[in-house]
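During the reporting period the student researcher (J.K.) took over the structure-prediction task from the postdoctoral fellow and processed the backlog of single-chain submissions. One of the processed entries is reproduced below for the supervisory committee.
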Amino acid sequence: MLIATSTNIHTQRIVKWLQKAGCEIFLIDESKPINMDYSQTHFYYYPHWLSRSKRWGWSRFYRWVGYFQLHYLWRKIKPDIVHLLWIDWKAFHCYRSHLKPLVITCLGDDINQHFYTGKNPEYYYDGRNSQYGAIKGRALVWAEHVFADSRQVIERCNILAKRSLSSSLLYIGIDTTHFQPGY
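J.K. obtained the following structure tokens:
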């Protein structure tokens, strides 16, 4: 079960890796994937109560309906693993929905944004919640394993989680078909 934005280049790269390995993929996203071969991939929409709750405010009723929907989807699919690409509110939703075993991939900006201001990273304000860093920390603690693209990101994940996490480096490199030198 892969919870990620299907239009993201990193998601597409992970889907290709899993396809080459012969894995059956259950992609959970808010929008239907386009412009990619998604053979061996089953698509499900992310629970709309959770994706829309950011627009409607954090109504307790809508949140719990969304947690139930996400947990029901997890029980229906019965995945070997839940992989979340990019730690944001969806990580907290996985924590609240009790999805296990959860593996999170942090790609840098999703964690580094809490450390740019020089203030306490737990109280980074994301426009909705002044304790966004602490919420991410709870989700990181819930995860069985964390992949990151640098040692610094792993160290920062440990700071947000307030403990040492099971983690590994995942060097994904730069996609030179999209990013090329300017000379």
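The committee noted the following: The first helix runs from residue 9 to 20.
J.K. will present the remaining backlog at the next meeting.
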